Automatic annotation (TrEMBL):
Top-rank taxon, per record: Bacteria
Name of protein: Nitrogen-fixing NifU domain protein
Pfam families, per database record: Nfu_N, NifU
GO molecular function list: iron ion binding; iron-sulfur cluster binding
Family indicated by similarity: Belongs to the NifU family.
GO biological process: iron-sulfur cluster assembly
PANTHER family: IRON-SULFUR CLUSTER SCAFFOLD PROTEIN NFU-RELATED, NFU1 IRON-SULFUR CLUSTER SCAFFOLD HOMOLOG, MITOCHONDRIAL
Organism, scientific name: Nitrosomonas eutropha (strain DSM 101675 / C91 / Nm57)
Domain Scaffold protein Nfu/NifU N-terminal residue range list: 5-91
Transmembrane region(s): none
């Protein structure tokens, strides 16, 4: 049962980041935009049962909850704390992570796999730490020629700056290794 060590605000005023003492996962990202998507995840489902919760995103030792703007954070934070504290701590998920990563790369050519690896290394070093610090992340959906499709997760998913400024910053950074790349958020 993960205990909450700290609660942090994010650049998105409708999202709070809960730092935990025990991990919920070991490197496996869980991101849900609605109760239907979260149906098979007991923690996320319990959080979506709470009024005003519109997004649940968690990985390792933190979870970000996004609300619709209609609730007072002081009250809502107390309400979402109960399911977080009741959630079981992480179990070994390394096999799941390896299988998911292999499946995602299976359909790419060897050249595109190498390109995507370089892109992911740059994202991991230069972008994800900042997004994660702010309670979010990004997931690469596809690399199609010079088009990279990403999906923002957690607090970043509904943050106005991620849709414009951050997206353009990511594109400019990636152009240092892929001069013709275009980055779009889905």
């Amino acid at each position: 049962m993960p205990k909450i060590a700290e609660i942090e605000g994010t650049p998105n005023p409708n999202a709070l980041k809960f730092i935990l003492k025990e991990p919920l996962t070991w490197g496996v990202t869980k991101s849900y935009n609605n109760a239907e998507q979260a149906a098979d995840d007991p923690l996320a489902a319990a959080l979506f049962d709470i009024d005003h919760v519109i997004n649940v995103f968690y990985v390792d030792r933190w979870i970000t909850i996004t609300q619709d703007g209609g609730a007072d954070w002081q009250d809502l934070a107390r309400e979402v704390a109960d399911p977080i504290r009741a959630a079981p701590a992480a179990t070994d998920q390394s096999a799941t992570v390896v299988a998911a990563a292999s499946e995602a790369l299976a359909n790419l050519s060897e050249e595109d796999q190498q390109r995507l690896e370089r892109i992911n290394i740059l994202l991991e070093e230069e972008v994800r730490p900042y997004l994660q610090h702010d309670g979010g992340d990004l997931h690469v959906l596809a690399l199609e020629g010079s088009l990279l499709r990403i999906h923002y997760q957690g607090a970043c998913g509904t943050c106005p700056s991620s849709i414009s400024g951050t997206l353009r910053g990511i594109e400019q950074l990636l152009r240092t290794i892929e001069p013709d790349i275009r980055v779009v958020s889905s």
